[in-house]
Design goal:
By secondary structure, the protein is α/β, with parallel strands linked by helices. The chain has 13 helices and 16 strands. The strands form four sheets. The protein has a seven-stranded mixed sheet with strand order 4-12-11-10-9-5-8, sandwiched between helices. It has a four-stranded mixed sheet with strand order 1-2-3-15. Helix 11 runs parallel beside helix 13 and helix 12 crosses helix 13. The protein is globular, with a radius of gyration of 21 Å. Bound molecules: pyridoxal-5'-phosphate. The site of pyridoxal-5'-phosphate has 15 residues, from helix 4. The site of pyridoxal-5'-phosphate (PLP) has 15 residues, from helix 4.
Length: about 425
């Protein structure tokens, strides 16, 4: 069966034929490809074609697909058990390892997704402060938590309205929204909602609506002004945690949140999330405290072992520097090619993440700075890349991921393909 045939069947049994929206290729056109195998930097489609994968499951596979060490560890634990619903040593080992690497992570709780981690952290923040409102930034994504599926409203500063059908206006009104990169608007919302805000939540490296790299002083202001007012700070490091550095963006920025959320790489490709931070806050969580949060498959041993093996390998191989230099090389060579062709796009990187974005004289730090025609420009380039055998996340607003499996040789191969795709799109 071809991808096209499989997609037709899928559309009968799943909404839009998929189990997560961006997989449907709606913003790039055509039908999505179905893949049945993956190894390292490569994906193999049901048609038997191979692609160099720069999506890597949207981040979890930082070592590449099916890393040998992770696979061996997973096979070993599967021979013992794959779910206990009891106490077991595997989550203890991962929790001890993570808390010893991240200074402000005193205690944590494992869950099964980034969304769950965020939802639980918000509950803790509300319980700790006795306040209801949460402040978020336009352009930061925090999973499909009801109260965070909101957009800026048209009325008062910070007022939010629901951004998804099925989210009640009452829920949306518990959230305040303010733009990134804008100290004045942030302070205004804080002042106008005095003594009502439980927490400010942000991606310290917003990477789900393009890659909106923030000024360090802006992030410092966000944290310090919240602190002054007794508002908790939650760093959503689901994408950046352990990826940018073992201590995530918090380490790179030298900022300490009160609570942090994790996901993606901490499960090494299996469904694992986690939230944690100050122990006085985490001690509010049941059974230590009165914030209820539970999960049948939480701390699943397969995910725990895959996560620990992945994180240890990141550390022992000095992966962060290697990943960064590979991503930088990719961007440098590709941008030269884009410039020669007068292409309307460029690639920007941060650590192992890259974003293909519209040409812009100043860095793009906010959603409203992304020109509306970006989707169209990206669509064309995406299709040419796919023809050449490069798999990018199928949307101009998603970032790309360089993994440890993208060796220099594979990058050479990828660059040839990227350049060919650029010529066809913009030559
Ligand atoms: C991916 C992501 C989430 C959601 O995680 P899921 O595992 O998809 O629920 C939340 N926050 C950020 C910053 C993310 O990148």
């Amino acid at each position: 069966m071809t991808s096209e045939e499989l997609f037709a069947r899928s559309q009968k049994v799943a909404p839009g034929g998929v189990h997560s929206p961006v997989r449907a290729f709606q913003s790039v056109g055509g039908h999505p490809l179905f893949f049945e195998k993956a190894k390292g930097a490569y994906l193999t489609s049901v048609e038997g074609h191979t692609y160099i994968d720069f999506c890597q499951s949207f981040g979890p596979n930082i070592l590449g697909h099916r890393d040998d060490e992770v696979q061996a560890a997973v096979m070993e634990v599967i021979d013992k058990a794959w779910s206990f619903g009891t106490c077991e040593p595997y989550s203890l080992e991962l929790a001890e390892w993570m808390t010893s690497e991240v200074p402000f992570l005193e205690k944590l709780r494992f869950v099964s997704s980034g969304t769950e981690a965020v939802m639980s952290a918000l509950r803790v923040a509300r319980a700790a402060t006795g306040k209801d409102k949460i402040l978020k930034f336009d352009g930061c994504y925090h999973g499909h938590v009801d109260s965070l599926l909101v957009k800026a409203g048209s009325g008062l500063a910070g007022e939010a309205s629901s951004d998804s059908a099925g989210v009640s206006e009452a829920t949306a009104h518990q959230t305040l929204v303010t733009p990134l990169d804008d100290e004045a608007s942030y302070l205004k919302v804080l002042d106008e909602n005095k003594d009502q805000i439980a927490a400010v939540i942000l991606e310290p490296l917003p990477a789900n609506f393009g890659l909106l790299i923030q000024r360090k002083v802006f992030l410092e202001t966000v944290v310090s002004e919240a602190r002054k007012r007794g508002i908790l700070v939650i760093f959503d490091e689901v994408i950046s945690g352990f990826r940018m550095a073992l201590g995530g963006m918090a380490e790179l920025l030298d900022l300490q949140p009160d609570l942090v959320t994790y996901g993606k790489v901490i499960g090494g490709g299996f469904p694992v999330g986690g939230y944690g931070g100050r122990s006085d806050l985490m001690n509010l969580v049941a059974p230590a405290g009165r914030v209820y949060q539970a999960g049948t498959l939480s701390a699943n041993p397969v995910g725990m072992v895959a996560g620990l093996t992945t994180l240890k390998k990141l550390k022992s191989s000095g992966a962060h520097k290697i990943l960064e230099s590979r991503a930088e090389r990719l961007a440098k060579e590709l941008n030269q090619c884009f410039m020669t062709l007068s292409a309307p796009i460029r690639m920007t990187t941060y650590g192992s993440l890259f974003w293909i974005h519209p040409v812009s004289e100043t860095p793009i730090r906010r959603v409203d700075q992304i020109p509306k025609n970006h989707g169209e420009n990206f669509k064309n380039f995406f299709s040419q890349c796919l023809k050449e055998g490069l798999y990018l996340a199928p949307s101009g607003y998603e970032v790309g991921f360089v993994s440890l499996a993208h060796t220099d040789e594979i990058l050479d191969e990828a660059l040839l393909k990227f350049k060919e795709a650029a010529k066809r799109s913009f030559g």
